Amino acid sequence: MSLHVLWHWLPNLFVVVLVAFPSFFLIRRNVVYRLAAGAISASAFLFFFGAALEPPFSFTRPEDLPPLVLGLVLAWLLAMGGRALRKQLSSGRTS
After folding, report:
1. Which of 7, 14, 15, 22 has a Cα at 20 to 30 A from 63?
2. Taking the model in full, what pTM does it have?
3. Is the pLDDT of residue 1 over 70?
């Protein structure tokens, strides 16, 4: 993967992370529910607004699947880090 390809994917990665992060961070159910909610919210957003993005982004085109998956993974990692930080901060306040 070249740096040019990653630079081209960057806006789409940002959009997927921005849309999927709240589902991964805020839902208190188990992992499967959070993953499903994040994937569904990102897919629904791209279905309705993906053509308006620059460059156009869709989950149905094979060339757009890598940034979608990378965005979901990045959102998941950020949400897990945020949840761990929130847990650490809340346990520090109670003790």
Report:
1. 22
2. 0.83
3. no
Q: CA 23 to CA 34: how far, in whole Å?
A: 6
The per-residue pLDDT for range 58-92, each reduced to its tens digit, is 777 888 788 889 999 999 999 999 999 998 998 87
Q: How far apart are CA 36 and CA 81, in angstroms?
A: 19
Residues comprising the chain, all counted? 95
List helix spans (H) across 1-64.
3-26, 31-49
* Burial class of 83 by CB neighbour count within 10 A (0 to 12, 13 to 18, 19+): middle
CB-count exposure of residue 32 (10 Å: 0-12, 13-18, 19+): exposed
Give the Cα separation of 20 and 15 in Å (integer).
Answer: 9
- Tell me if 16 sits within 8 A of 68, measured CB to CB: yes
